Amino acid sequence: IVMTQTPLSSPVTLGQPASISCRSSQSLVHSDGNTYLSWLQQRPGQPPRLLIYMISNRFSGVPDRFSGSGAGTDFTLKISKVEAEDVGVYYCMQTTQSPLTFGGGTKVEIK
Amino acid sequence: EVQLVESGGGLVQPGGSLRLSCAASGFIVSRNYMTWVRLAPGRGLEWVAGIYSAGDSYYTDSVKGRFTISRDNSENTLHLQMDNLRLEDTAVYYCARRVDTTRVLDPWGQGALVTVSS
Description:
The complex is a heterodimer of chains A (111) and B (118).
Chain A: E1 3-6, E2 9-12, E3 18-24, E4 37-42, E5 49-53, E6 57-58, E7 66-71, E8 74-79, E9 88-94, E10 101-102, E11 106-110
Parallel strand pairs in A: 2-11
Antiparallel strand pairs in A: 1-3, 3-8, 4-5, 4-9, 5-6, 7-8, 9-10, 9-11
Chain B: E1 3-7, E2 10-12, E3 18-25, E4 33-39, E5 45-51, E6 57-59, E7 67-72, E8 77-82, E9 91-98, E10 105-108, E11 112-116
Parallel strand pairs in B: 2-11
Antiparallel strand pairs in B: 1-3, 3-8, 4-5, 4-9, 5-6, 7-8, 9-10, 9-11
């Protein structure tokens, strides 16, 4: 499954919202009825960190300014008010079908 | 605490070999689907290999026949044997566990840098 993210880069003013889109080449609905679409954040020099799983569930310790939505083949990650610590590259990832695949990444940077 | 600690990265010439290790604590490697993911310079995350609890393993096409994923149950450790390395294998390699219920990758190792250069 090919995952396509837009935009490639997102310059954002501190305190303003940011939005990242992810589209899959086929439906991510598993035969068990769940949709295994996650969002990861990777800060420079660090391993990826899980933010959102199964479309819209925030992982433990993730601030509530991060939210996920979508269904089927179209998904969105939103940051309600960007903070300096949010700088990094964001990836969508599907684990509905093997092999797992990632979007190309979206770089969030401060204007 | 659930944790993965990697070791074994380094500089190697084209055609050479390297073995990465990923030591787990807080869970049993052999009872989980484990995977290796890499981040090459200027590129995005790429799945490399995975091994199921039953022992069957899978690889991305570009490493088939050159990389081998395995586990040492006595050491609760995951390995990635990399042979016939190419320049394009240069990357930071991460190990990760896939959680069965949610299919998320968590935790991740800290990463091991592999540089293939002459």
